[in-house]
Amino acid sequence: MAESRWIFDVNLDDFDTRVLEASKQQPVLVDFWADWCGPCHAIAPVLAQVIDDYDGQVLLAKLEVDEGDNMKLAGRYQVRGFPTLILFKDGEPVDRFSSARPAGFIEEFIDAHLD
Fold this sequence. Notes:
Blueprint: E1 7-9, H1 15-21, E2 28-33, H2 38-53, E3 59-64, H3 71-76, E4 84-89, E5 92-98, H4 103-111
């Protein structure tokens, strides 16, 4: 799936390493999405473009909630609807938003958390 080197898929098995540990170096935005979710598909290309524009300042981890045990992560972070995007810094969730949003909103959301 990865459209760029800044975007990658994660699952329950590698979440702690690829998201929590990685977020100690740079922010990681996690996209909790589902294949049946229309807004999830609508925001995907917008997210890909925004993340590419940041050129590595922030990473995007895509978590398909219906695969394997991934719903456990949705439960851990109290995700109630899809898509939900949670930004992790220093191993902790620091902010979130739900539903498809325009690029400008996503950029402002990310900018608020860049050092």
